[in-house]
Amino acid sequence: MDADYLPYHPAPRKPAYTPPPGAVDAHCHVFGPGDRFPYAPARKYTPCDAPKETLFALRDHLGFARNVIVQATCHGTDNRALVDALRASDGLARGVASVGPDITTDALRDLHEAGVRGVRFNFVKRLVDATPREVFLGIAERIATFGWHIVVYFEAPDLEGLIPFLKQLPTVVVVDHMGRPDIARGAEHPGFQRFVALMEELPTLWSKVSCPERLSLEGPATGYADVVPFARTLVDRFTDRVLWGTDWPHPNMTSHMPDDGALVDVIPRIATDAAKQKALLVDNPMRLYWSA
């Protein structure tokens, strides 16, 4: 583990909010254990181990039924830790993998059988080296034949330049963490409204309304209140195209390590009635990850 890396919260509280039956934590990770699943040599950071057993115990503690586990950059395109967790989940987890352009069709088929239903394209420069967009487009064409979708991770200043690329992708596209808007500028700022307008234009574009702990300037003292208007806007306007997740074990947090119970308690503030909560936590992730 890097000397300045913050480990996950050791004892998150039981949330006051009770998720609906069948709720899905649709964005979380597993790391290692490093002695069994080594971290990628070209990684930008070395996390603490965060094994599947701890993730599944957290799922139960928070009142969720299922997980969507997303491959993180510290494991590169070696998806063995992800696949191990999926196979151990008894069908209660699905995965989003990271793959290279040289992956074989048989390897993609093996990932599908393990429970992978998407791939992640990362554009955050501090986490990954740049990949030519032609490479991503080639991968997108291949995974589309399996009915998978694409998860994209970028920061708000990069959105404008990515729009032509996003429009070329042949599958459902899920944007991580609302495209990391600049919270200081408010939800009405043209930067965030560009993202809202893109979701209006592209019916295949979804968003995770997750990670207030990464985006907030106010922090946990206000329950991340400054992020709520952004997430509520997307839930209200695109109720059938939003997902939510803890982001456990919260890699590369520097300001604080969030209490996952407190993160769950943000949900009723962004999805303000039972129908929206069920769409966000049950109907949407089940349709995207468990329909086939």
UniProtKB/TrEMBL annotation:
Residues 24-289 form the Amidohydrolase-related domain. It comes from the Bacteria. This is Amidohydrolase family protein. It comes from Azospirillum oleiclasticum.
